[in-house]
Histone deacetylase
Amino acid sequence: MLPIAFDPIYAHPLPAGHRFPMLKYELLPEQLLREGTATEADFFAPVPPPDADVLLVHDADYYERLRRGQLTRQEERATGFPWSAALFEREVTILGGTIECACRALATGVAFNIAGGTHHAFRARGEGFCLLNDQAAAAAWLLAHEPRVQKVLIVDLDVHQGNGTAAIFQHEPRVFTFSMHGARNYPARKETSDLDLPLPDGTDDAPYLSLLVATLPRLLDEVRPDFVFYLAGVDVLATDKLGHLALSRDGCRQRDEIVLSLCHRHRLPVVVCMGGGYSERIIDIVEAHANTFRVAAGLFI
């Protein structure tokens, strides 16, 4: 089984100007079902978690103002989204989905959230289309509630640095944050992850994959995690209009294969979230994301 969190609200509460990149949340499940990579039984509908689970990583005042739509104009502009009740519901549902994925991955080895990877959300503010940090909340939930998980590794391979995640866990030794990202890309001001690997513009398959192969196995040996969160953004593609890296679709697939094969070999449960993807053609986004699921299906099913 390949547990996959999906809810139609992942796409629909957003303003028209944001709809194109969000189409992947509708098209990706359709593609996975059509080709047989996933079945209807693999999908589950996530639900918002108790407030206490959100507050493991978010400031109570910020969370309440977000719920009530009381962010300042400056705070709202930083998120990139105009506030709405539907948007709030979307964000807490995504977060709840990643927590549920973490529970399911402990049993199945892997689980996916079709959305998620909201790594620019800090404890008390949102940025870059991220209002609540789903992987951070799920990691904190595991450490608080699951005795089998004493150390978490977050592997963030989105093209943008996971600045919010790095800041949230800056003083938490039980969570190791690893971000491999475009050096000159958003955010302009980077935070400090436990390991940052900034890449020059135009980095393509060979140097990217070589660096990942030289780094991740060593990290697993040194960090010795009990659980992995993987942010598998496809904004590393050469076709991406915001990414400035130059991976081919096959190179992106090989990246996923490296990460997921290592997790499988080390018997590490892993939750995968989709992260960013902004190629001009929606097929490039959907196919690159679908490859992540195809790789996991070949390994874990």
Summary: The first strand starts at residue 4 and ends at 5. The chain is about 45% helix and 10% strand. The CA atoms of residues 253 and 289 lie 9 Å apart. The chain has a mean pLDDT of 96.
